[in-house]
Specification:
This protein is of the alpha/beta class and 377 residues long. The protein folds into three domains: 186 residues, Rossmann fold; 53 residues, Adenine nucleotide alpha hydrolases-like domains (SH3 type barrels, Roll), CATH 2.30.30; 85 residues, Elongation Factor Tu (Ef-tu), domain 3, CATH 2.40.30. The chain contains eight helices and 17 strands. Strands 12-15-14-13-16-17 form a six-stranded antiparallel barrel. A five-stranded parallel β-sheet has the order 3-2-1-4-7, with helices on both faces. Strand 2, helix 2 and strand 3 form a beta-alpha-beta unit. Helix 1 packs parallel to helix 2, helix 1 packs across helix 6 and helix 3 packs antiparallel against helix 4. The longest helix is centred in the first third of the chain and has 20 residues. The chain is globular and about 70 Å long. The chain starts with a strand and ends with a helix.
Length: 377
């Protein structure tokens, strides 16, 4: 095999560690890199409150694995870029009453943009990550395709929909054809101490996974009280700020009612949280913005797809209608629960990622959606 150099994004976990090991075994010249994105020096005393790839422990584990595999290892400082592209976006989305997915923004701006740029400076041919997804080149389409990982339970294609053709062409994801159990088995066989390391479920830059305190610290001016209103118009109480709420939320509403109520909408313009019963969470339409097409250059006509509106959501049958300005309208065959503005919606054809975008509006009325579709024709 031709001698190729690859920069592996190492988080100190079992997935990225096995990724580095597999690629080295396949004959690649492997360089391990951890992207330093945890808080700046004035917060260093709080380092033990950060989890996952942001923690200092993650760097120690990644360095140990690199030494074990006899590969060079570096820690690269992406703090400023991460703060500007990921944390600032995270805060602004909550300020606007939306619920963002910072992992997608990190992939978009840090892993597959900034890290790829750095890899090229190191004369590397590829970057590699421990994602459970598959990249392949389709001669007939003359395009790189993104497919689900073979391990259905671990598939991460949902958080990768924003990848561009040049990024797909220079990225390796060797775990896409493996199961998680197989990955842990390989780690044990290699004698890697991270073989049994648990997965982090928290957002890495949120201390103690406390969203409310983090958002309050980052933008205290956004903490403005306002009304909690039932869908029928009744004022039920006061909220402390819309940044503390998300669609589908039931706990922590601070109101007492006989029947369970959920956040069904957030109106930033009126600083209002709207609540309703569980049935009110269901909607069958959304508009997505900032759409990125992967499998095709662009969808030009109404197309039947399956759409996924959350990482753990089972994709559902829907009709995709392209609109103007990189927007699409999605109408589900059956109503879906808690379609949440700010989250990603990803379009599939079987295991193939067609594309995806950010949910801009959800559960539109027939009148509004009809006008939107009309404008897009």
């Amino acid at each position: 095999m031709e001698h190729r150099r690859v920069v592996v994004a190492m988080s100190g976990g079992v997935d990225s560690s096995v990724t580095a090991a597999v690629l080295k075994d396949e004959g690649y010249e492997v360089i391990g890199v951890t992207m330093q994105i945890w808080p700046s020096d004035h917060q260093a005393g709080q380092a033990d409150r950060f989890e996952g790839c942001c923690s200092l422990a993650a760097v120690e584990d990644a360095r140990w694995v690199a030494h074990k595999l006899h590969i060079p290892y570096y820690v690269l400082n992406f703090r400023e870029l991460f703060a500007r592209k990921v944390i600032a976006d995270f805060c602004e989305e909550y300020r606007c009453g939306r619920t963002p997915n910072p992992c997608i923004r990190c992939n978009q701006h840090i892993k597959f943009d900034a890290l790829l740029t750095k890899a090229r400076e190191l004369d590397a041919d590829y970057i590699a990550t421990g994602h459970y997804a598959r990249i392949e080149y389709d001669e007939a389409r003359s395009r790189y395709l993104l497919r689900k990982g073979l391990d259905v339970q671990k598939d991460q294609s949902y958080v990768l929909y924003m990848m561009k053709q040049d990024q797909l062409a220079h990225t390796l994801m060797p775990l896409g054809k493996l199961t998680k159990d197989k990955v842990r088995q390989l780690a044990r066989e290699l004698g890697l101490k991270v073989a049994t390391k648990p997965e982090s479920q928290e957002i890495c830059f949120i201390p103690d996974n406390n969203y409310g305190d983090f958002l309050k610290d980052q933008m205290p001016e956004a903490v403005r009280a306002g009304p909690i209103i039932h869908r029928d118009g009744r004022v039920l109480g006061q909220h402390d700020g819309i940044i503390f709420y998300t669609i589908g939320q039931r706990r922590g509403l601070g109101i007492s009612t006989r029947r369970p109520l959920y956040v069904v909408a957030i109106d930033k313009s009126k600083n209002t949280v709207i609540v309703g019963e569980e049935k009110d969470l269901y909607g069958d339409q959304l508009i997505a913005s900032d759409v990125n097409w992967v499998a095709v250059e662009r969808v030009k006509r109404p197309t039947r797809i399956k759409a996924k509106i959350r990482y753990r959501h089972q994709e559902a049958d829907a009709l995709l209608t392209p609109l103007d300005h990189d927007r699409t309208h999605i109408r589900f065959e059956n109503p879906q629960k808690a379609i949440t503005p700010g989250q990603a919606v990803v379009f599939y054809d079987g295991d193939l990622v067609i594309g995806g975008g950010t949910i801009l509006e959800a559960a539109l009325s027939d009148e509004v959606s009809g006008e939107a579709i009309k404008r897009g024709e």
